[in-house]
Write a structure and sequence with these properties.
The structure holds two protein chains of two kinds.
Chain A lengths: L1 H38 L4 E2 L11 E14 L2 H10 L4 E2 L1 H21 L5 E8 L7 E13 L23 H32 L3 H8 L4 H7 L7 H11 L3 H4 L8 E5 L6 E4 L3 E5 H6 L3 H17 L1 H19 L5 H38 L7 H10 L4 H5 L5 H14 L10 H11 L22
Parallel strand pairs in A: 1-4, 6-8
Antiparallel strand pairs in A: 2-5, 4-5, 7-8
Helix pairs in contact in A: 1-2, 1-3, 1-12, 2-4, 4-11, 4-12, 10-12, 11-12, 13-15
Chain B lengths: L4 H6 L1 E2 L10 E15 L2 H13 L4 H24 L4 E13 L2 E13 L1
Parallel strand pairs in B: 1-3
Antiparallel strand pairs in B: 2-4, 3-4
Classes of the chains: A alpha/beta, B alpha+beta.
Chain lengths: 453, 114
């Protein structure tokens, strides 16, 4: 989450500076134009090619006026927001109008002494992005004609060519439209991904991922051999009555323990569950451990792991389509509606998985003791609610504790005596004949987290 | 600011140097009209697809059409401010001024007619 805030603050400051410098530059240019346009004598400007017949021509000369004006980053952002709704770019209209006045001013300065400039042509170049280039060319006629007074033939900002709009108001309305559109797109694509994920069968998923997972397993397991704790965890998963597992019963589950201190677990495609050693250290009873594994099985039931991957892929593809890679700020801004769309979706996934966890505990032990203990511990680690929690993809652990407890109460689920994790593990070792009963005298040797490879 | 199509219909804007059958009495100088527009991003995505298969990109043709019409009506509005009767020697030019936004500008010479 922090990685969303920091670049945003930096970018906002840059855009704020660009807004101020851009407006100062606009104002300065406007004043300079007014002053210089007033200084030049009257000249006839004509986009036609005909030499007037009421003059005596002394000389003629090719004259040009050129100007390149850079748009500031704020205006660039406005243009990028504007493409989501389409229509006029008022901020740029003001600049292109000034650019033409400047080009004509330079043309007339170059044609000093001429009474007419005929055959005027405008052109532009493509020097780079965010540059407004104007080239004006014409033929200066030096004649006996000396115009006095008359209308200034410069082109003042007469209000015709510019849609007068407040830039900040335009920015605000553009941003809101942009964020709403992004949110809509990410939500819609999420629904599409959900549909796609649910239409892939478990067998197909396992077939695809069995090609990819050996790498991860080889990294953590010597000779693909499961460690004792991993075998215990897998045995625990397989001991859950099949009818309680739901659609995920088709998976051939595997459990991989990752040496990582953060208390975490994850469901990977193909039925591979990851459990961090930090999580194993956090739990005290087998019931608590199964509540975690049951939660991950719940994710398999919802096919959440596939949807998560699908949403990432679609998100990246959409951002690449909607904004080019150089649009740092729009890409950053779009990550917020994406976050919100993902958040609602991800939270409902988490709660569904919690429901499965409760169901699995009930099926295995006949009671739901310790169903929410891990969340209570995580809640203590996480501390009080903050703004960041509001945006988090997971509900606050304390809310989940309350919810699980309410559910157990409403359904009248009994609370029984939990099984100590250490004892359960030792019983597993004895049952499978991995160690003789005498070896248990030095109990700590067979701790879940340090007995390993 | 858009201007009523009636105004555009009343005043002649031509690409040649005279109004047939009328005599130019006074040259009021150059006038121009400009329009900077961008199209909706959905059309951009359609256009990108069109880019794969070829063919006319109608949404962008519409963009040019809208911008050209606005530029012309602004040109005429500027000429009306000068009390001109017509605009002759009208030319068009385009440029890309911002990300996915096009500018079309029309310029010509405002004149009085007899």
């Amino acid at each position: 989450m922090e990685d969303l805030f920091l670049p945003g603050i930096a970018l906002t400051i840059l855009i704020g500076i660009a807004y101020i410098t851009g407006r100062l530059a606009d104002g300065a240019h406007e004043r300079a134009l007014r002053r210089d346009e007033a200084l030049l004598p009257h000249q006839y400007l004509d986009s036609g090619d005909a030499v007037p017949d009421d003059i005596t021509l002394h000389d003629s000369k090719l004259v040009t006026g050129k100007v390149v004006i850079a748009e500031d980053r704020f205006r660039n952002l406005l243009a990028r927001l504007r493409i989501f709704v389409g229509g006029r770019l008022a901020a740029h209209e003001a600049t292109v109008t000034r650019a033409k006045r400047e080009a004509i001013l330079r043309l007339r300065t170059n044609a000093k002494g001429a009474s007419h400039i005929i055959g005027l042509r405008f052109d532009s170049a493509e020097l780079g992005r965010g540059m407004i280039e104007v080239i004006v060319s014409g033929t200066a006629l030096y004649t006996d004609h000396r115009p006095t007074g008359g209308r200034p033939s410069a082109l003042p900002d007469d209000g015709v060519n510019i849609s007068h709009r407040n830039l900040l108001a335009e920015f605000a309305s553009g941003s809101i439209a942009f964020l709403l559109i992004c949110w809509g797109i990410y939500t819609a694509s999420g629904l599409a991904v959900e549909w796609a994920a649910n239409s892939i069968s478990v067998q197909e998923e396992v077939a695809i991922w069995s090609e990819l997972e050996p790498g991860l397993i080889a990294e953590h397991r010597e000779d693909y051999e499961r460690s004792l704790p991993e075998r215990y965890l897998l045995d625990l998963v397989n001991s859950i009555p099949k009818e309680a597992i739901g659609p995920a019963k088709d998976y051939d589950f595997d459990v991989l323990i990752i040496p990582d201190d953060s208390p975490n677990a994850a469901a990977l495609p193909g039925g591979l569950m990851l459990v961090h050693t930090g999580m194993l250290e956090l739990v005290d009873t087998e019931n608590e451990l199964l509540s975690i594994l049951g939660h991950e099985i719940g994710h398999y039931n919802g096919r959440d792991h596939l949807e998560g991957i699908g949403r990432e892929v679609v998100g990246v593809a959409l951002s690449a389509m909607m904004f080019q890679t150089d649009a740092v700020l729009t890409t950053w801004a779009a990550s917020w509606p994406k976050l919100l769309a993902d958040r609602d979706y991800s939270r409902s996934q988490e709660l569904d998985a919690d429901d499965w966890s409760l169901r699995i505990l009930m099926a295995k032990y006949g009671h739901v003791a310790e169903a929410s203990t891990t969340f209570a511990k995580l809640g203590q680690l996480q501390g009080d609610r903050s703004l960041l929690d509001y945006l988090s993809t997971h509900p606050h652990p304390r809310d989940r504790v309350e919810r699980l407890e309410d559910m157990a109460r409403e359904q009248g689920l009994p609370i029984g005596e939990p099984v100590d994790l250490q004892i359960a593990f030792e019983n597993f070792l004895l049952r499978t004949g991995e160690i003789p009963a005498s070896a248990l005298e030095d109990r700590h040797q067979f701790n879940l987290t340090n007995t390993g490879h | 600011m858009t201007h009523s199509p009636n105004a555009a219909a009343e005043m002649a804007a031509v690409t040649i140097s005279h109004i047939p059958g009328r005599e130019i009495t006074e040259n009021l100088g150059i006038v121009f009209g400009s329009s900077v527009r961008s199209r909706n991003f959905l059309f951009d995505i359609f256009a990108m697809l069109k880019n794969l298969f070829g063919g006319e990109v109608r949404s962008y043709t519409r963009l040019l059409e809208d911008a050209q019409q606005e530029a012309t009506s602004r040109l005429i509005a500027q000429a009306q401010k000068l009390d001109a009767d017509a605009v002759v020697d009208v030319h068009f030019a385009t440029s890309q001024v911002a990300y996915k936004a096009a500018e079309i500008f029309a310029y010509g010479t405002a004149v009085r007619l007899k």
